[in-house]
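step=encode ok
step=design start
structure_in=
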């Protein structure tokens, strides 16, 4: 008998895991939440396929479909996995993943690195302000280090010389998409772009503020919406699409 939990939090950006913890703690108060982590070796070529293979190796041992949750690139991994192995997925919750799901902060960073006449360090400092707001020098320096680590160890498919696009499409499994209206990476248009692909059981939810890491700044509000989504899937009558603010 499998001992895997019913909910699996995906993480492919080790330096960002600290921003996931508040929401994981909230969900863990009501559900059994497991965590699956992938850390890309700096010597390895960037490949989402490796992450997908390892995730499948993990979930093959599970005797029931599981709820997947992922932020940004981890959400992309969950989406690609759900497309390929829908029978293994109970539902998929995407945090800060737009209708063009490969778009992440690194895609924005590399575009600006090509266009703006500034150093890498200056650009990363600007990215910190865009992603996390204004902070003192000490906190900003620490956040720059976190972004540098993500550039090194995340399997984000983008680089200075190449930007990758994953076409939008529907998924067979129940889908929830969460985001923020003030996210500069995945803006409201990118979130609303999911509408043509949503099924009756799916949900699209936007919060007014919180940016790209809304689930870190507002874990309770995001968590309540995710719990309601899961509960709706066990209701005898499917709930209509809910777009909340």
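sequence_out=
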């Amino acid at each position: 008998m499998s001992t895997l939990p019913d909910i699996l939090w995906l993480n492919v950006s080790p330096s960002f895991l600290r921003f996931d913890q508040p929401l994981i703690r909230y969900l863990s108060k009501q559900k059994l939440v497991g965590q699956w982590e992938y850390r890309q070796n700096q010597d390895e070529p960037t490949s989402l396929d490796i992450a997908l293979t390892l995730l499948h190796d993990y979930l093959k041992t599970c005797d029931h479909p599981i709820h997947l949750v992922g932020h940004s690139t981890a959400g992309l991994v969950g989406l690609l996995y759900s497309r390929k192995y829908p029978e293994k997925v109970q539902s998929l919750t995407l945090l800060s993943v737009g209708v063009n799901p490969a778009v992440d902060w690194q895609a924005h960073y590399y575009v600006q690195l090509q266009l703006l006449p500034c150093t890498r360090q200056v650009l990363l400092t600007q990215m910190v302000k865009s992603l996390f707001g204004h902070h003192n020098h000490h906190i900003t320096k620490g956040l720059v280090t976190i972004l540098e680590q993500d550039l090194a160890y995340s399997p984000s498919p983008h680089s200075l010389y190449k930007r990758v696009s994953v076409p939008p499409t529907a998924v067979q499994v129940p889908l929830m998409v969460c985001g923020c209206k003030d996210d500069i990476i995945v803006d409201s248009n990118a979130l609303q772009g999911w509408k043509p692909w949503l099924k009756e059981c799916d949900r699209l939810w936007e919060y007014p503020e919180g940016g790209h890491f809304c689930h870190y700044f507002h874990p309770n509000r995001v968590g309540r919406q995710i719990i309601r989504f899961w509960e709706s899937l066990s209701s005898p009558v499917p709930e209509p699409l809910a777009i909340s603010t």
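step=design ok
step=annotate ok -> The chain has a mean pLDDT of 91.
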